[in-house]
Design a protein that fits this description.
Layout: H1 3-11, E1 16-25, E2 28-36, H2 43-59, E3 68-72, H3 83-87, E4 93-98, E5 102-111, E6 115-120, E7 126-130, E8 134-140
Length: 143
Amino acid sequence: MDKTTLENLLKECDVNLYDTETVTENDHKIYRVYITSKNGINLDKCTQVTKILSPIFDVEPPVQGEYFLEVSSPGIERKLTSPSHFQNSVGELVKIKHTEFGKLKGEILIADEQSVTIKDKADKKKKKLNYSDILNAKTYYSW
């Protein structure tokens, strides 16, 4: 199943596709589908999505071989891997590993299709970063 088809199926459940990943834990392959919603994600919503995806994946598996399907929220601290992830995280705190600046922490101020602007926690300056120069990024919560 392609990403667009998966996104359309999830919209029918009133949720959005955040990301997918395949991992191996304790010798078990796990296919994870991360979902978001303006109304939040709860166990009932994850169960609803699982019941819709399971029979489809029985016919058209998302990965080769035996696997377990997990549907969940990406969580409060999550990886940012696409422009839409940054755009939906404006106002949140982020840790970024950048090719030029190294490790940064700050608040996402603006995000578009090419770059993100953060207010650096260390020097309080705004920094505009091209996505192509970001090695990895993750939101974080300051307790």
